[in-house]
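Hi team,

As requested, here is the filled-out complex form for the aspartic acid run. I kept the field names the same as last time so the parser does not choke. Let me know if anything looks off before we queue the next batch.

— J.
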Amino acid sequence: MQKQKEMQKQKVSIAIHGGAGTISKANLSSEQEAEFRKTLKEALMIGHASLLANEDGALAVIKTVQHLENSPLFNAGVGAVYTYDETHELDASIMHGKDKNAGAVAGVKTIKSPIAAANLVMNESVHVMLSGEGAESFAFKHGLEKVSNKSFDTPHRLEALKKAKLAIQEDEQAFYQHPEHADYKFGTVGAVVLDAKGNLVAGTSTGGMTAKRYGRVGDSPIIGAGTFADNESCAVSGTGHGEYFIRFNVASDICARMKYQNISLEQAANDVVNKVLKGAGGTGGIIAVDKDGNISMPFNTEGMYRGSVDTEGNIYIGIYGDE
Ligand code: ASP
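And here is what came back:
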């Protein structure tokens, strides 16, 4: 009874993202905008309901991310961007703040839900990250659904690849460095939660960057770069130019700053995204939740698909920079 009361008192919160980039009102029709807002809200509500039902934070993260993986709007699962060779190579990771257990898959091609595969690696293997064929055979041995690589195809991503290839042929260096090319990769998805037991969990799933070269691995499956969770500080999922997130260890840096500098989540997240990352020329954003359920979602791009439900139950959905 006492335990039940404590559980009811424990507040939950959740934040999600669907990618950061050159997202402006001029780039989205009102129908497209409505679709994005609808799908973000659905994902958010799935995760929040899971948290309210006292399910483990990892389950809430998986359910939320899977909803976004299944939507063609986002660069994860169906709707993943294309590699230079016109295939899809998917990356995902999950981390549990209670014991800092973590799992990741990189460069997988036929696993329907990469976030579920990352969770399997976390729970059922002695490893943290599996890549390529090894990750796939492990996932299928444990019963995950296999799909054809083509099932992730969408016409709009193919169109983006064609444009990207033309730009790369002109100047490859400029293509990867210029922030205006951020729209060739937006759509990565992620979720961070504080569950009813006080656990922080973070998960991220992506198709990576349009026209990425065979075997390129971004930040999303790298624990510390694109995903991090520690019950003593915060849970973070990132989206943006992965190479910078890896080099600046973005997700774990935010948690470390909170812990060692004794600063708020808001300050730590802003310092890393708007000072460190931006100062280095890295574009992107993050979503984070701390052990008290505070939420922070800074980004240094024009927009970031995002949403949250705070500990009071307030729902927020945002796309552009000024909302
Ligand atoms: N961070 C992802 C990557 O570099 C892409 C993105 O978030 O848009 O693979």
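Two things worth flagging: The mean pLDDT is 94. The pocket of aspartic acid is lined by residues 19, 185-186, 188, 206, 208-209, 218-220, 226, 239-240, 242 (CB under 6 Å).

Thanks,
J.
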